[in-house]
Amino acid sequence: MIACLIAGSALSVAWVSRYAVAVHRLGRGVGDTVFSSADGKPWFRLDEQRHDVALDQISPHLQHAVVAVEDRRFYYHPGVDPIGIARALVHDIRSGGRFEGGSTLTQQLARTLFLSNVRTYGRKLKEAAIAVMIEAQLTKTQILELYLNRVYLSAGVYGVQTISEHLFRKSADTVTLPEAALIAGLIRAPSALSPWSNYDGALDRSHLVLARMRELGFITAEEEQAAKRVRPRIQPYRQPADARAGWAKEFLRQQFRNEFGGDHPPDWQVHTTFRPSIQDAAEQAVSAGLERLRRPGLEAALVAIDPATGDILAMVGGANYQRSTFNRATRSRRQPGSAFKPFVYAAALESGYSPVSVLTNLRHVSAPENPEWNPRSSEGDPDQLTLRAALFESNNAAAADLQQQVGSRNVLSLASDAGLSNLPDVPSLALGTGLVSPLELTAAFTVFPGGGEVAR
Description:
The protein is mainly alpha-helical. It is built from 17 helices and nine strands.
């Protein structure tokens, strides 16, 4: 028991020391986390779309709007706000355990700089502890400036300067009161309230911001009403000038944020497995393939993985990143079709079949529960084939028959071991009727050159 307490105390001291050093560095400013490619050369920054500015270059309206809606007691608490925490706790209990805000601006900054996005009570405790350290190290002015430059606001945009440029084509020091309220309102739900996709929702939220500003004395009732009568005009969204490898970069950014949170002082150097030459070749291959097909609205995706190590070497998530940032390589789930058949044959080999085992009566394969179902590829299909020939010809009837002989459970088990889960237990499973993403399928295929082991 004593040993456990000593070990726990040592871990606590180590944790506090680690973040105390990092927080101390905040006084010297926070740089950028830089991702390098597999050759060790700098590739891109974590927050490519972010331009830091001094607090005196940010409109007072915008400063007041953010404080009013996100942390009305910002200038009076030491990093954590007991009143806000109590309010959030009551909300959690009433909503059955859902996490409510309750975080001060300083806590939000602590989360952005140091913690992951996983929402747990443990993270809340760390967030509060780091916030107190930040308040002891920096002034309120420094904290607010850092927060306004680092806060996520929508569509991959960080910081009030950059969102002002994107939304209104102006700098943060020239935004009007209605525009400032619109920007501040995005912080709570930047994706759901993106003005480019949900203008009315963003506008409604801005009216709440204006009401909070009036309650705190930042503006008068007359100014509030006048601002509510204005519908700020937003500009079309502009993609970054360099959209090359856009899906790959955003995939890596998201992986980093999910694992570690935002920029971690001291500035991090993140080494990736992506190879620029292979990435360029992948993008050219997708472009050339789509050009050959010439079908309107056609999309494609590609993932390249080193089968020896499991390293992702390249990723393309669509036809045109400027037109659509949706990553079809990771988020789009489609039927793999005949690409799934090797997993059926692998299950058969594990069950005692050999490449020269003969499958017979293939012209009469059907599902036990549906005798009318016929998976034949064509009328001229042979009635018997060896496993080797059936796989070489990608014969549908042979794959379906083999699934029945081996057992769907064994096929599903092998596929699951390879990383393909949530597949349907149906007779057509062998024909690739389950849903998988290109990343999942490509990673699963490393089981074959890996001698039965998936490269991870």
